[in-house]
Amino acid sequence: MKNEPNSINLLRWFDPRNRKLGTWAFILNRITALGLTLYLFMHLIVLGTLARGPEAYDNFIKLAKTPIILIGETLVIAAGIIHGLNGIRIALNSFGIGTRYQQQIFIGLMVVAAGCIAIFVKSMFFGH
Amino acid sequence: MSTNEWSVTFEVFRQKKGQPAHYDEFVMKVDPDEYVLDVIERIWAYTDRSLTFRHACHHSTCGACGMRINGTEKLTCITPIREVTRDGGKVRVEPLRNFPILSDLVVDMGEFYLRLDEAKFPQVATLKEACLPFERKQQVREDGNFERLVDCLECGMCISACPVALTSPEYLGPAVLAAAQHALHQFNDKSLFDYVDNQDGVWRCHSAYECTAVCPSNVDPGWRIMDLRKNLLRHQISKIFSR
After folding, report:
1. Quick one: pLDDT at residue A50?
2. Every domain range in chain B assigned CATH 3.10.20.30
3. Out of B117, B178, B209, B233, which could bridge B224 as a Cys pair, Cβ 3.0 to 4.6 Å?
4. Do A96 and B226 touch, CB atoms closer than 8 A?
């Protein structure tokens, strides 16, 4: 409804108090989308540095193996998996499939996401 | 009614036109089985005659007394005190979100009702359509219960709970989209596709389903929005192949 504009309302998107599971899904989708968009820009900037020659490439590989970058990559993979699986729920619902079971579908998909993330973490940090 | 007496602090949102918002506290002796609206009426009757709020039927038929109780949208006439607090506890009473505030707990529902009209929602149902065997074309759930938009109280709580409506004032909102879905189903009025097929219509919903969670009449606006999307997609695809 035509309410007075209030910039604080944007922050209220991320306030899960007194909300149901659907809002948690909504919040997760927004956070992961913002994270993935940020990653895309960072990725393009890093790719730009590789054009500076073999030395720049070697330096980047050295940097990519540091724990902070590995944790960052884990977060990117986690965000991609969560966003993608949650997107499947929304797409199914939009075709009228499973609307009444959206909470159960969300829980099921997040369990799958947790499993996938765990496998990725194991192979990334303990795989060698 | 129980014979208990609880002491409960009511934090009531106050804002008169052009003045800053604040909360007034009222410590009230209450029966835990009485309803939140009963206490609000007592505050008005015995403590503060300047408090404004809407109410009418007192039995969840009119939808006038929708407010936020401790942050969640509730019909205050059917919300027992014991459901929202404890002895010595607090109850925060606030107006609905996403509507302009007129005074204290009263919000401006005018535009909402106009939008319901645009979505061809009959705000007064004829006796024939309101009673058994329900609506012209029945929508039956998997569990055998009937979907009845005629049960919608136009309380606006679904709009208040919707996180998308927080930042998109032009978004039609759950009740209006549910009304469009209903009109489309009942009367096959395809002009409603144009009404909802835009960025502030059926595609703006982000599937949080808070509307369905707070609906006091089990109208299930979330399901109706998704059904509308499905039918809209079907309509668009059939248009491509019929060219």
Report:
1. 78
2. 6-107
3. B178
4. yes
Q: Is the pLDDT of residue B81 over 90?
A: yes
Instruction: Inspect the interface and report whether the beta carbons of B209 and A20 lie closer than 8 Å.
Output: yes
Fold entry, domain B110-241: Fumarate Reductase Iron-sulfur Protein; Chain B, domain 2 (1.10.1060)
pTM of the model: 0.86
Residue B45 vs residues A103, B66, B150: alpha-carbon distances, Å: 43, 20, 34
Cβ <8 Å between A22 and B99: no
Cβ contacts of A29 on chain B, cutoff 8 Å: 206
Q: What is the Cβ-side half-sphere exposure of residue B130, based on CA atoms within 13 angstroms? A: 10
ipTM: 0.80
Fold of domain B6-107: Ubiquitin-like (UB roll) (3.10.20)
What pLDDT, on a 0 to 100 scale, did the predictor assign at position B83?
96
> Amino acid letter at B32?
P
Q: State the pLDDT confidence band at A14, using cuts at 50, 70 and 90.
A: confident
